[in-house]
Amino acid sequence: MDYWRMMGFLPTSGVSITLVNLLTAAVSPPFHSVIGDARDLAQFQDRAFDVAFSNSVIEHVGGADDQQRMASEAMRVASHYFVQTPNRYFPVEPHFLVPGFQFMPNGLKAQLVTRFDLGFYAAPEIPKHEAREHARTIRLLSASDLRRLFPGCVLYRERILGITKSLMAIGGWSDRPGTPRKEW
After folding, report:
1. Which end of the chain is more exposed for a tag (fewer CB within 10 A), N or C?
2. C-alpha–C-alpha distance, residues 57 and 74, integer Å
3. Model pTM?
4. Dihedral of alpha carbons 144, 167, 101, 70, sign
5. CA–CA separation, 109 vs 29, rounded Å?
6. CATH number, domain 37-92+139-184, options 1.20.120.1770, 3.40.50.720, 3.30.300.160, 3.40.50.150
7. Interhelix angle for 128-137 vs 106-115, to 10°?
8. Which residues of 69-83 are buried (b: 16+ CB within 10 A; e: fewer)?
């Protein structure tokens, strides 16, 4: 709900937003909070929603198979989808704010996280096993990864100084019927 408020979302009559998270949250209408896992949304019927929206989640759900399960579920439960993720090839890893961090071996990542304050992680506050788990479970995606996960999607690239910072897979819309765009 905080994300939507930060984005300036003003609820309109007849709009309902279901937030799916690992933990429930106190929310007020038009928001509704449910406990769920993006990789398994069996509690929802096919096309239960008009739009599935995900902002920087898919890189946190696990490995390639987990990411495929999340993508399949997003396409199943909604007529349209918008899935955003940081670009694997952006020079600075967005969670730890270290250049090239995403390409380092997990052992080195864990050592750096436990010794230095990096991004969202404060060194003295995070145990080594937890640091290793965080480094292991964040799997950034490339444009080709998103195309594979969301066949037929429109790919949008958010750029900073000409470098792609994040990627968005957008599905269920097109500029003209029958002619979906491949990339923006």
Report:
1. C
2. 12
3. 0.85
4. negative
5. 41
6. 3.40.50.150
7. 130
8. bbbebbbbbbebbbb
pLDDT tens digits, residue range 38-88?
A: 999 999 999 999 999 999 999 999 999 999 999 999 999 999 999 999 999
Neighbours of 19 (CB within 10 A): 16
For 26-51, what is each residue's pLDDT tens digit?
888 888 899 999 999 999 999 999 99
